[in-house]
Amino acid sequence: MAAVSTLSNGKVGLIGSCSGGRQAFLYACKRDDIDCVVDLWGGRVVQAEDDRPEKQPVQPIDMTSELSCPLLGIFGNDDRAPNVEQVNQHEEELKKHSKDYEFHRYDDAGHGIWYYYTPLYRVEQAIDSWQKTFAFFEKHLSV
């Protein structure tokens, strides 16, 4: 869509939830053709040594130094994947590499706070995080 001038100003944002959040983060670490990325509660960015698949010798957090654009992260403090400690580790790595990022964490929220069709949905946290997401895209994708 970035190439279609009638639909776009040429800027591209990427968003993903759960494993899609991790994949969006990985994409932004390996490519430089997007302008910002949103990770919605993406688990397994930080992995324990015994939790890594045999064919995955490097965990996603190890690629943080390669992050090519601003990152917005939305997380629930009651989530187990990623849990609070994993989000803390991710944030520390972003700081270490002086990356442009915003992390927002929500109490009384776990995994999938936008999933309105499940018991995971949290109205107040969803509304606030949607507003933060739109503001982030506006900041990084408008002309």
Quick structural overview:
By secondary structure, the protein is an alpha/beta fold. Helices cover 31% and strands 15% of the residues. Strands 1-2-3-4 form a 4-stranded parallel sheet, with helices on both faces.
The structure class reads alpha/beta
Count, helices: 3
* Ends apart, CA distance between termini: 16 Å
Structural shape: globular
| Widest sheet, order of strands | 1-2-3-4
Mean pLDDT: 93
Descriptive notes:
The chain contains three helices and four strands, in the order βαββαβα. It is α/β, with parallel strands linked by helices and 143 residues long. It has a domain at 1-42 and 94-143. It has a four-stranded parallel beta sheet with strand order 1-2-3-4, with helices on both faces. Strand 3, helix 2 and strand 4 form a beta-alpha-beta unit.
Write the layout of secondary structure elements.
Elements: E1 13-17, H1 19-30, E2 36-40, E3 71-76, H2 84-96, E4 101-106, H3 123-141
Parallel strand pairs: 1-2, 2-3, 3-4
Key terms for this structure?
alpha/beta; 4-stranded parallel sheet; 143 residues; single chain; 3 helices
